[in-house]
Design a protein that fits this description.
Residues 118-290 form the D-isomer specific 2-hydroxyacid dehydrogenase NAD-binding domain. This protein is of the alpha/beta class and 322 residues long. Helix content is 34%, strand content 15%. The protein contains twelve helices and twelve strands.
């Protein structure tokens, strides 16, 4: 594209290479250049590689944008991130520099994440990854799975996603129970679960599923003590945020064969190729796919283009403030 007016846009962490086709970037007009980055930009290279860009388009929390990096991007004038909130972006530092920050709508991410939660639960209970590999390798059945009917489903957090998981759990014949710091018996009942203590949730549940926002108060909320309380063979599902769980304690419990886990989120993403979780047969791993659907991504990128166009007209939309 022509670069004459100096507007250069970087679309970061386009892992699947679909951003260009899911929105009409050409509608931004001649003189606007858009570059799509499929590979993550290492933090050590970020300042040099992103310095020429006026606009950064971020996919959720894949690329942290802290005050130090912001200070090294003199050309930056607009940041658009997908979804409603992004704790990895220092909005206060951007605003102090006079840089506009906009977001997009959430799409069907909540629904899709609940669906993936159930998929991971079933994959763990029925040993599906192992049996997929058996079939691909010419072998036949080698494991004995477990049904979920009559089992207890423990929900750590009973917001929009947790309540949806509870509903599907009930449809499978499970008994949903829930705990979170401010959850009441009445709100738990409205969300389709019975309120229990934090200790009981871990000791009584056959499946524990995490549905909490990551904050200083929730970081490591599932630690050594909580994992130790889980029943032998119980399943831990995390489709929320990796740092909610003490990763070292989880790896230790999985290595000992005490529990099983279905994980979509990790302390470090992308998960390093040599990470110990990758080699554990009782861990079902997916690469943070909870919100990754065609419908959601189309909304994300269409909203991103809309936000850039509105900003260029001097009437920005969905502005995020500190």
């Amino acid at each position: 594209m022509n670069r004459t007016d100096g507007i250069r846009i970087a679309v970061l962490d386009d892992y699947q290479g679909v951003a260009a086709e899911l929105a009409d970037w050409g509608s931004l007009g001649a003189g606007v250049a858009v570059d799509f980055f499929r590979e993550p930009v290492p933090r050590a290279q970020a300042a040099a590689r992103l310095a020429p860009y006026s606009v950064l388009c971020l996919m959720r929390e894949r690329m942290p944008l802290d005050a130090a990096l912001i200070a090294d991007l003199p050309a930056l004038r607009l940041v658009v991130f997908t979804g409603g909130r992004n704790p990895s972006v220092d909005v206060a530092a951007l605003t102090a520099r006079g840089i506009t920050v906009c977001n997009t709508r959430n799409g069907e991410g909540g629904i899709a994440t609940a669906e993936l939660t159930i998929a991971l639960m079933l994959a763990c209970a029925r040993n599906l990854p192992r049996e997929f590999a058996n079939m691909a390798g010419g072998r036949w059945q080698e494991s004995v799975g477990e049904g979920l009917e009559g089992r207890t489903l423990g929900l750590l957090g009973l917001g929009r996603i947790g309540a949806r998981v509870a509903a599907v759990g009930r449809a499978l014949g499970m008994r949903p129970v829930a705990w979170s710091p401010n959850l009441t018996a009445e709100r738990a009942e409205a969300g389709g679960a019975a309120l229990v203590t934090r200790e009981a949730l871990f000791s009584e549940s056959d499946v524990v599923s995490l549905h909490m926002v990551l904050a200083p108060s929730t970081r490591g909320i599932v630690g050594v003590a909580e994992i130790a309380r889980m029943r032998p063979g119980a399943i831990l599902i995390n489709t929320s945020r990796g740092p909610l769980v003490d990763e070292a304690a989880l790896v230790a419990a999985l290595s000992q064969g005490r529990i099983r886990a279905g994980l979509d989120v990790f302390d470090r993403e992308p998960l390093p190729a040599d990470h110990p979780l990758r080699g554990l047969p009782n861990a079902v791993l997916t690469p943070h796919l909870g919100y990754v659907t065609q419908s959601t991504f189309r909304m994300f990128y269409e909203d991103t283009v809309e936000a850039i166009a509105a900003w260029r007209r001097g009437a920005p939309v969905r502005v995020v403030t500190p």
